[in-house]
Predict the 3D structure of the following.
Amino acid sequence: MQSAIVTGASSGIGKAISEYLQKEYKVYKISRRDGIDLTNIYQLEKLPFLKDKDIKILVNCAGIGVFKPHEEIKVKEIQEIITTNLTAPIILSKLLLRTLKKNKGYIFNITSIEALRYSKFSALYTATKAGLRSFSMSLFEEVRKDVKVISINPDITKTDFFNNLNFCYSNERDSYIDPQSIVKIIDLALNTDEIIEDITIRPKIIKIEKKRKKG
């Protein structure tokens, strides 16, 4: 059986992708709930399952964000967000690239609509997601004969990403992306001979809700 690695696999988009891949692949999950801290980048190369010679798919899905005036963001938060959203995917891609080339594999980088636009209070998050998208597209040019590198840029998605933020998706169905819609893109990419390099998925309407402050 061939294998896949999914970061951020414990919830949201990553969980949905993991459940889909488990039907045909052995899935190695990377998340804090699975006991792996992506911000500890020097431990990544020591993960034992990276030696699996049958790895065909890498999904870089883990992501965190802080949306407030840049001067209010703590230095520790800046480091954590850059490491999780950008540095870790780049390192994992490097560590697995030879195996993925051998297996004619795939790298899926889950970025964000913010990689394509400029939003207030999103400078840090946008920088990491735009960086990941640019990394994807440059790496595609480097390895396109052997590895399909796909950047997926979802708009606001119904996940627990917003649990600790002061805004979230609206409950109006046409205003958010369902994680299963992203799974369908993964399925399409895995079942076509052509290469999907970069794809953006958006809801029909724009609508977010601010959370009421407690107390």
Notes: DSSP finds five helices and eight strands in the chain. The mean pLDDT is 93.
